[in-house]
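For the sake of transparency, this paper describes our internal protein records without simplification. Because each token names a local backbone shape, the row as a whole describes the fold. One such record is reproduced below, unchanged from the form in which we store it:
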Amino acid sequence: MSKVLTPLQVELASARQSLSFYKSEVQYLAAKVKLERIDAKLAKADARRARRDAAIAKAQARLDRLMAPVGTKAIKANKKPSRAKTTKFASVVTELSTATA
């Protein structure tokens, strides 16, 4: 013989069933939100890594340009000028100018 349920008992059973469904739904949604947060964190880290790599590449390119060999004209232009040489004519001119003064 089956047990006869009152309308209130039927409603209680239905509420319990829907409560378990909503609990599982809440757990599912909470897990989904947690995964979204983790994905956002990973995307942020990837963007940070990409910016850092770009900055390193830019600095490396700048360093390579600075370290590149320069042409012979630039080397000659960058040299310290040598000491001035006095010629025999210049010494004669200075002696004459001091003698006349």
Summary: The radius of gyration is 45 Å. The chain has a mean pLDDT of 85. The CA atoms of residues 4 and 86 lie 130 Å apart.
